[in-house]
Amino acid sequence: xxxxxxxxxxxxxxxxxxxxxxxxxxxxxxxxxxxxxxxxxxxxxxxxxxxxxxxxxxxxxxxxxxxxxxxxxxxxxxxxxxxxxxxxxxxxxxxxxxxxxxxxxxxxxxxxxxxxxxxxxxxxxxxxxxxxxxxxxxxxxxxxxxxxxxxx
Length: 152
What we know:
single chain; alpha+beta; Nucleotidyltransferase, domain 5; 5-stranded antiparallel beta sheet; two-stranded parallel sheet; 4 helices; 7 strands; 32% helix; 28% strand; disordered C terminus
């Protein structure tokens, strides 16, 4: 049986230079690092960027074979849409949000909660670290510096 995974923050956005970033961390239930990502998504709307961050984080969890996932993210709006999918009918990001719901079902046991960004030092660190990343996605396999943020 796999450990329960707690993403430290699947989605954090930093605006600057007319670019938007998302980053996220997946940790085992004991707080150990599993994986992470940073992505420079270029120009876009904040809600769209948050949803793409959610999508990337879920895809990474599926690729890692995670079957039990707790998602903790700082976007109350995305959490609200996922918890009440009936609101998606005519939303501009309905297709992407629906794909996220399908991936959550694919994972198996998967729940989502809102947390304020200020509670997440790793997200702030990754966002500042990724500020100069070129357009695109970088999946992080091993991270020794972030061990100081261990949550156990």
